[in-house]
Design brief:
This protein has helices spanning 6-10, 20-38, 57-71, 127-137, 169-186, 210-220, 237-266, 291-300, 312-321, 326-333, and strands at residues 49-50, 53-54, 77-84, 93-102, 107-113, 145-151, 162-168. It is α+β, with helices and mostly antiparallel strands and 372 residues long. Strands 3-4-5-6-7 form a five-stranded mixed beta sheet, sandwiched between helices. Strands 1-2 form a two-stranded antiparallel sheet. β3 and β4 form a beta hairpin.
Length: 372
């Protein structure tokens, strides 16, 4: 919607492998789906592989937040519902993570799970979530209101990790025909507008996008033949702000270029100065070999296993499973855990977190260097 030409550009890009972060998110979604469909607990999968990722405590705890939220709804839930919005545009389709309709209140609830922690997502006027809601609402003719919820357990937000927004169905469909459909039709224009911006971060065409490459070079104030990057100490605060603002798109563009180059090499093309080699690999126990554990237990005894304490969240769950009430379990553990100070991080000014108060230093020792 921000860049109509991106659709045609994406069609020119050979298929590249999923980034590790995207692959991890796919595995987390798969875990969530299995738990919701079969009434299972995410913690039961810790140590097991899903889509090439071993489920760890962090993934299980994050998925648990989403699963518990979805399970509170009454009614017939639809999990990973495929939909096609051909009545708006032939190429708009997708899969809604979770939805449930309540005929008594004539309300539809649509929930989208976000496993990522790098980009905080808001449900308000979220076009992706609104498209999911259009797909989930199909067939519920008497629906009047829709709640759209983002569950993003690993990303900080002042409003919490579960954030909801509400819209009347008639307003959603007005948006579909007044905003979404015209935007989709604009992508069919051979001379459609192309525009770089924050929306480029996850675009599959970023590696070949002329607007993005031009923007990246303008940021760096350089060219490929004579790269000259300015010294941060010689940059103005405004210049520093601009580089930080656009660094996410720049690094995403560079990563996409590398993936694109790999795909070209795999097709037999040449990229001057680079080649494909086998990745380094560490030894693992042969999958499915039942003799491994028995052999190691026989030879090493308890040394065959690596033991570690459960996390505070894991201990809290275990205490509750043993019959201790939630508040009592929390009170028992509270004196035992701390949140370590991990320092500070830089975020955009619109981030809702309170800025750290930095004390004003009036005197500097001779050995302190600082920017003038």
């Amino acid at each position: 919607m921000n860049c109509p030409r991106s659709i045609k550009l994406k069609a020119l890009v050979p298929k590249v492998e999923e980034s590790p972060h995207a692959a991890e998110g796919t595995a987390a979604h798969e875990l969530a789906e299995m738990c919701l469909r079969d009434s299972l607990d995410p913690e039961d999968f810790i140590g097991l592989p899903i889509d090439g990722f071993e489920v760890g405590e962090e993934m299980a705890e994050a998925v648990r937040v989403y699963v518990d939220f979805c399970r509170q709804f009454k009614g017939e839930a639809e999990i990973e519902k495929r939909f096609n919005l051909g009545f708006i545009h032939k190429d708009i389709f997708g899969t809604a993570d979770f939805s449930v309709y309540n005929p008594d209140s004539k309300a539809l609830s649509v929930v989208d799970y976000k496993h990522g922690k790098g980009v905080v997502v808001s449900p308000e006027w979220n076009s992706q979530l609104m498209i999911y809601s259009l797909g989930a609402s199909w067939g519920h003719d008497d629906c009047e209101k829709i709640s759209m919820t983002i569950v993003q357990p690993r990303a900080y937000h002042e409003d919490g990790v579960i954030r909801s927004w509400f819209i009347d169905k008639k307003d959603l469909y007005s948006w579909a025909f007044d905003v979404l459909r015209p935007a989709a039709l604009r992508t069919e224009d051979e001379n459609a507008r192309i525009e770089a911006g924050a929306h480029c971060r996850f675009c599959k065409a970023i590696a070949i996008c002329p607007a993005q490459s031009k923007r990246a070079l303008e940021i760096a104030k350089t060219d490929f033949e004579n790269p000259v990057l300015p010294d941060p100490e010689k940059m103005t605060p405004e210049q520093i702000s601009k580089v930080i603002e656009l660094s996410g798109a720049f690094s995403s563009w560079a990563d996409r270029v590398r993936s694109y180059a790999k795909a070209r090499l795999e097709l037999g093309d040449e990229i001057p100065g680079f080649k494909l080699v086998e990745r380094r690999s560490n030894r693992i126990w042969a999958p499915g070999n039942a003799r491994v554990e028995d052999f190691l237990k026989e030879k090493l005894g308890e040394g065959a296993y690596v033991k570690k304490l459960v996390s505070p969240a894991g201990a809290e769950r275990a205490l509750k499973k043993s019959g201790i009430k939630a508040k009592e379990a929390k009170d028992l553990l509270e004196p035992l855990w701390v949140k370590p100070d991990r320092g500070t991080t830089i975020v955009p000014s619109e981030d809702k977190r309170t800025a750290v108060a930095i004390p004003i230093v009036e005197e500097f020792s001779d050995n302190i260097a600082f920017l003038k």
